[in-house]
TrEMBL record:
<dbReference type="InterPro" id="IPR050571">
    <property type="entry name" value="Class-IV_PLP-Dep_Aminotrnsfr"/>
</dbReference>
<dbReference type="GO" id="GO:0047810">
    <property type="term" value="F:D-alanine-2-oxoglutarate aminotransferase activity"/>
</dbReference>
<dbReference type="InterPro" id="IPR036038">
    <property type="entry name" value="Aminotransferase-like"/>
</dbReference>
<comment type="similarity">
    <text>Belongs to the class-IV pyridoxal-phosphate-dependent aminotransferase family.</text>
</comment>
<dbReference type="Pfam" id="PF01063">
    <property type="entry name" value="Aminotran_4"/>
</dbReference>
<keyword id="KW-0808">Transferase</keyword>
<dbReference type="InterPro" id="IPR043131">
    <property type="entry name" value="BCAT-like_N"/>
</dbReference>
<keyword id="KW-0032">Aminotransferase</keyword>
<dbReference type="InterPro" id="IPR043132">
    <property type="entry name" value="BCAT-like_C"/>
</dbReference>
<dbReference type="InterPro" id="IPR001544">
    <property type="entry name" value="Aminotrans_IV"/>
</dbReference>
<protein>
    <recommendedName>
        <fullName>Probable branched-chain-amino-acid aminotransferase</fullName>
    </recommendedName>
</protein>
Length: 290
């Protein structure tokens, strides 16, 4: 069966779907995107993702292409038409089609919306097989990383360097301060040398991760402490454990950074528990995670 995409009001086979060459997303990267995990026919943390989409659009003065309720219906219809119950949905909103000019169109044009979905394996069941390695790189992205913009060239370059090094992610840091920011496409966490679960506080320097927020909510429910406090590369290298979170990584243990083991180089007890907690969250059954 051909994959079906939603493109500006129409459901089309992806092989026939297209956007205008003067779409501002293509010309300028003038747009916002979201990625949502579909588990057993249910979009995980859908409200968080749609709220973040709305916030990012507000930050660049771009209106929603339709109401949240209507957009939710489109997301479900794309999954239904593709017969996908376990997958990753991608949606992108751009400022639409207009003669190429850096400034916004003098006459507003309709925002452009594209939605696609693809099948992926379900939440992993073996945390030891889910572990991975990372590298560190200077953070070269723009100043408003809290906006989920389609401008992802620095992220792509960082991910490519990670792949060339045999790693799955690049952990980015501020060259001036040596402080860790986040992954190229993930939130980065450590269990520090004192046993505290830590990740950087939110501001314009990092993306407000939806999986980050969902995991924190579950930790609060379970009475588990965490610390939104920045940490340096040196603190990271002394950490007992490390992990990344995202809609595609869930809770992924990081056991090697820049070729060196994190802690003892094995998946640690804290990350094991967080992996299980988030597995239950994905399945909608966190009450039994304690």
């Amino acid at each position: 069966m051909s994959k079906i995409a939603y493109v500006n009001g129409r459901y089309l086979p992806q092989s026939e779907a297209s956007v205008n060459i003067e779409d501002r997303g293509y010309q300028f990267g003038d747009g916002i995107y979201e990625v949502v995990h579909l588990h057993d026919g249910r979009y995980v943390d859908e409200d968080l993702h749609l709220a973040r989409l709305e916030r990012s659009l507000r930050e660049i003065a771009l209106p929603m292409p339709m109401s949240r309720a209507a957009l939710s219906m489109v997301l479900r219809e794309v999954a239904r038409r593709n017969r996908v119950t376990e997958g990753l949905l991608y949606m992108q909103v751009t400022r639409g089609v207009s003669r190429r000019d850096h400034a916004f169109p003098s006459k507003p044009v309709p925002p452009a919306l594209v939605v696609t979905i693809r099948r992926v394996p379900p939440y992993p069941t073996n945390v030891d097989k889910w572990q991975a390695a990372c590298i560190t790189l200077p953070d070269l992205r723009w100043a408003r990383r809290d906006i989920k913009s389609v401008n992802l060239l620095p992220n792509c370059l960082a991910r490519q360097k990670a792949r060339e090094a045999g790693a799955i992610e690049a952990i980015l840091f501020d060259e001036a301060t040596g402080m860790v920011t986040e992954g190229a496409a993930t939130t980065f966490w450590i269990v520090d040398e004192n046993g505290a679960i830590r990740t950087r506080f939110l501001d314009h320097v990092i993306l407000p991760g939806c999986t980050r927020a969902a995991l924190m909510a579950e930790l609060r429910t379970l009475g588990m402490d965490y610390d939104e406090r920045a940490f340096s590369l040196e603190e990271m290298r002394r950490a007992r454990e490390a992990f990344i979170t995202s809609a595609t990584s869930f809770v992924k243990p990081i056991t090697k950074i820049d070729g060196q083991p994190v802690g003892d180089g094995q998946v640690g007890p804290v990350v094991r528990r967080l992996f299980d907690i988030f597995a239950r969250h994905v399945k909608g059954d966190v009450k039994n995670a304690a």
